[in-house]
Amino acid sequence: MPLAEGELVVFADERFQLLQRLTPGKRLNTYWGYIDHDEVLGLKPGSMVRTSGGKKLYVFYPTVSNYILKMPRKSGIIYPKDLGIIMVWTDIGPGDRVLLGGVGSGALLIAVLRQVGATGKVVAYDLRQDMLDCATENIKTYFGTVPSHLELKLGDIYEATGETGYDRLLLDVPEPWKAVRIADSALIPGGILCSYLPSIVQARTLTTVLQKSGSFGLIETLEVMLRQWHVEGRAVRPQHRMVGHTGFLTFARKLSGGE
C-alpha cells in the first residue's frame, strides 16, 4: 500500500530512526540534511530516500518497538525486550480481558491493546491524571484513536475492589504485593499475574506474599538480557554495548482453590 497523507512512518537505517506523520509541505530535518514529505507520499514501504545531503534512509511503517522507543514519555517505560516476554509468558491473545495497574507513558498498554484486539477488553488504573493523559495521547498517536476496548481509570489498583473475571493482571507498580488480594478476586482460575519491578528485593517480597496467599502457583522470576552482534564480512563479534538489566519480571498462575 503506498504511503499516504496522515500515516505514521519511520525513517531509518541501521543506527538511526525517526518517527514522522506524513504531511504535505512538511519536512524531515536531520544532521545530514532534509527530506520533504512530498517526496515520500506515494512510495511503497521499504523505499530508499535520500536527504538533501545525500544520506540514504529507508521509510517504513513503524513497528510497535519503533514507536515505543520514540514516543513522548513522562516516566520510564517497559522496554520492548521485556514487553515481548510479557506478551508470550502471559499468553495474551485476541479476546482476552486484561487488568493493568500502573499506566505510565503507555508502552505496556499499547502492546496489550494490539494483542487483545477489538474483541478483548483492557482496564487500566493509575493514580496520576497526567500519566493517564500522556498514555492517552501516545495511544491516539499510534492507533489513530483511543480503542473502544480500552477503559482508563483514575484510581489505586491496590483498592480496585469489584474487578472480576479477568484473564490476566499486569502490574507496573512499586508495591505489587499490596495488590495480591485484588489479584485473587480479579483473576479467573488459571489466570496469570505478571509484575514488573526494578529491584530483586521487591520481587522477593512479592514472591513471598504470593506463596503465603495460597491462591497462586507456578511462581517464577526472571530478567531479560539483550545483546546484539556485529556481523560484517569476516568480522563477527558481540556488540561492545548491550541492553542489560532493566527490570525483574515475576509471573504466577491463579489456583482454583483447595491446597
Structural features, described:
With 259 residues, the chain is an alpha/beta fold. Helices cover 26% and strands 32% of the residues. The chain has 7 helices and 15 strands. The strands form 4 sheets. The chain has a 7-stranded mixed sheet with strand order 9-8-7-10-11-15-12, sandwiched between helices. The protein has a 4-stranded antiparallel sheet with strand order 2-1-6-5, with helices on one face. A hairpin with a 2-residue loop joins strand 3 (27-30) and strand 4. The mean pLDDT is 93.
Kindly state the percentage of residues in helix: 25-40%
How many separate helices?
A: 7
The string of secondary-structure elements, in order, is: EEEEHEEHHEHEHEEHEHEEEE
Low-confidence stretches: none
Sheet with most strands:
7 strands, mixed
Task: Label the overall shape.
Answer: globular
Distance between the termini: 56 Å
What's the arrangement of secondary structure elements?
Blueprint: E1 8-12, E2 17-21, E3 27-30, E4 33-36, H1 37-40, E5 47-50, E6 56-60, H2 64-70, H3 80-89, E7 97-101, H4 107-116, E8 121-126, H5 129-143, E9 150-154, E10 166-171, H6 180-186, E11 187-197, H7 200-213, E12 216-222, E13 229-232, E14 235-238, E15 248-254
Parallel strand pairs: 7-8, 7-10, 8-9, 10-11
Antiparallel strand pairs: 1-2, 1-6, 3-4, 5-6, 11-15, 12-15, 13-14
